[in-house]
Amino acid sequence: MKITIITIGSSGDVQPFVALGMGLKQAGHNVTLCTSDRFKISIIERGLNYAEMTDDLIKIIDTDEGRAAIESGGNSFSLIKKVKPIIRRMLDEAWVAAQEAEVIIYHPKALGGYHIAEKLGIPAFMSLPLPLYTPTITFPNLMLPNLKLGGWFNKLTYKILPLLTAPYMDVVNQWRSEVLNLPPRSFLATELVRSNGQPVPVLYSYSKHVVPRPDDWPETTVATGYCFLDRIDNWQPPEDLVEFLVAGSPPVYVGFGSMAGRNPEKVTQIVFESLARSGQRGVIATGWGGLAVSDLPDNLFKIESIPHDWLFPQMVAVVHHGGAGTTAAGLRAGKPTVICPFFGDQPFWGRRVFELGVGPEPIPHKKLSVEKLANAIQVAVSDDDIRKRAAGLGEKIRAENGLARAVDFISDQLANWFLVSG
């Protein structure tokens, strides 16, 4: 079948879909992935079709206004005004990419997938690497603090999810009318149910060993296990990095992706002093808008971007912002994890790491200091219980095959779709 995958965001939002696309292609499907053009080469290298989507939404995050919104945990009115035209362009591009689609798989952050499937009358799957959309009594909406008020409160918190996209529903509804010739939808409407009343199948690409599956989830929702996108076969690490790694004890990885906020120089200084105080060597990842790194002491090494599946197993611990993809890579490597969350789902993963006993308590970025980070690194590298639990969790994750389960789930749900639809 012809399957179009639509997603947008950072590497953690895209790489699981590339891996899924490869699994679906191996199963005999024709797969097109529509996402930011910064991932175009990686997608084509892995044998998938690529469909264009603007990179402007990601670029705006790396502006002063974007970083300020990240630090405050929300969007400013002026930023929303700037984002709306970008979203309209993304919706138009997704529609172009899906013209021949027989199945849509989408990250809800891309906004268009649900509506395109409605217009075309084809099967649709929501997919994301965090348990965000499906209500449960087990834990609250992960965008909210866990107040431990009971199952009734936990389930109630999922009612606010439509508010995440409410600021942009006027753009979506205008596009539904002008392009799809569909009626408007309420900004309170859920994406878990189609207009014909059928449930939307949901794939959460994380491990049950990290977040156990709630008993009250429907059969149309599954935690598949992680869908990792490993490095291509001919990739080779930089020689100077290899030399650094073999020249001393295993270092600590530190990287905050694009999340270093409005003062990356301050964050960088905290990282440098924390590693020095804890007596650790470090590999510092600058990302595409994160840590600012210039002159380095001999015990530190700077990288722009290195495949985590190669690097993390060689670390003694990993320190990062708590993005879903980076968290998954560190846990798979079996390494103690220190999370310094900034916003979104990052505090949730920080809590899970701590609750699982595979890392110290998370340090919110607004409370980040040399003393706190140095102490957390020291705990991560020296606590034998944390190290053993992290190694054990890594073994469990490596034994899973999330990609195969995801492909099987999609196949089963498609069979049900065509059985019901005749």
Distance between the termini: 17 Å
The largest sheet is: 7 strands, parallel
Side-by-side strand order of the widest sheet = 3-2-1-4-5-6-7
CATH C-level label of the largest domain:
Alpha Beta
What would the average pLDDT be, to the nearest integer?
Answer: 91
From the spread of the alpha carbons, the general shape counts as: globular
Q: What is CATH's topology name of the largest domain?
A: Rossmann fold
Q: How many domains comprise the coordinates?
A: 2
Instruction: Count the beta strands.
Output: 12
Poorly predicted parts:
none
CATH superfamily of the largest domain: Glycogen Phosphorylase B
Number of distinct helices: 16
Describe the structure.
The protein is an alpha/beta fold. It has two domains: 247 residues, Rossmann fold (3-Layer(aba) Sandwich); 161 residues, Glycogen Phosphorylase B (Rossmann fold, 3-Layer(aba) Sandwich), CATH 3.40.50.2000. It has 16 helices and twelve strands. The protein has a seven-stranded parallel β-sheet with strand order 3-2-1-4-5-6-7, with helices on both faces. It has a five-stranded parallel β-sheet with strand order 10-9-8-11-12, sandwiched between helices. Helix 5 runs parallel beside helix 8 and helix 10 crosses helix 14. The chain starts with a strand and ends with a helix. The mean pLDDT is 91.
Please describe the topology of this protein.
Layout (H helix, E strand, L loop, with lengths): L1 E5 L4 H16 L3 E7 L3 H6 L3 E5 L2 H6 L2 H9 L4 H21 L5 E4 L6 H8 L3 E5 L22 H6 L12 H12 L21 E3 L16 E3 L15 H8 L5 E4 L8 H15 L3 E4 L14 E4 L4 H4 L5 E4 L3 H9 L4 E3 L6 H10 L14 H13 L1 H16 L2 H20 L1
Parallel strand pairs: 1-2, 1-4, 2-3, 4-5, 5-6, 6-7, 8-9, 8-11, 9-10, 11-12
